[in-house]
Amino acid sequence: MLDGTSRFTCKGEKIYHSFRTSTFTEYTVVPEISVVKIDAAAPMDKIYVISCEVATGYGAAVHSAKVTPGSTCVVFELGRISSAIVMGCKASGASRIIGVDINEGKFPRARALGVTDCLNPSNLKKPIQEVVKEMTGTSVDFAFEAIGLAETMVCGFGSQ
């Protein structure tokens, strides 16, 4: 909760909320500020909780990096924030978007959102930044890292 407490316990231990929504629970307790009334006529199979990752990722590409038309981008990790980064790159007119993730199950969705090339670094014999440079002939114009790991940040810088 906003006051640092939790309403959940398991075997006497407190369980803290994730992003104040605890969406992996059947029932949850949230602060009043987090509650939004959904119209009864709204199709429940189309209702989705959108958290800050959409504004964060899309904004990183469109407003912070200012991706330019015809540019080449590389996006490390293809989760929720990165999906929004990909959408921002595509909306900005990037001609090539290289997606990097060790989970190939994310590739179909990434392609549907605009990724043109998918790479799994686990399957490569060279460092990912070398492969990206070989693919582009030089380097990328924009590199995005949405994991928060020093190793992938270094790969991002090395791709430019």
Automatic annotation (TrEMBL):
<dbReference type="GO" id="GO:0042572">
    <property type="term" value="P:retinol metabolic process"/>
</dbReference>
<dbReference type="GO" id="GO:0004745">
    <property type="term" value="F:all-trans-retinol dehydrogenase (NAD+) activity"/>
</dbReference>
<dbReference type="GO" id="GO:0005829">
    <property type="term" value="C:cytosol"/>
</dbReference>
<dbReference type="InterPro" id="IPR011032">
    <property type="entry name" value="GroES-like_sf"/>
</dbReference>
<keyword id="KW-0479">Metal-binding</keyword>
<feature type="domain" description="Alcohol dehydrogenase-like C-terminal">
    <location>
        <begin position="82"/>
        <end position="153"/>
    </location>
</feature>
<keyword id="KW-0560">Oxidoreductase</keyword>
<keyword id="KW-0520">NAD</keyword>
<dbReference type="InterPro" id="IPR036291">
    <property type="entry name" value="NAD(P)-bd_dom_sf"/>
</dbReference>
<dbReference type="InterPro" id="IPR013149">
    <property type="entry name" value="ADH-like_C"/>
</dbReference>
<dbReference type="Pfam" id="PF00107">
    <property type="entry name" value="ADH_zinc_N"/>
</dbReference>
<dbReference type="GO" id="GO:0008270">
    <property type="term" value="F:zinc ion binding"/>
</dbReference>
<dbReference type="GO" id="GO:0042573">
    <property type="term" value="P:retinoic acid metabolic process"/>
</dbReference>
<protein>
    <recommendedName>
        <fullName>Alcohol dehydrogenase-like C-terminal domain-containing protein</fullName>
    </recommendedName>
</protein>
<keyword id="KW-0862">Zinc</keyword>
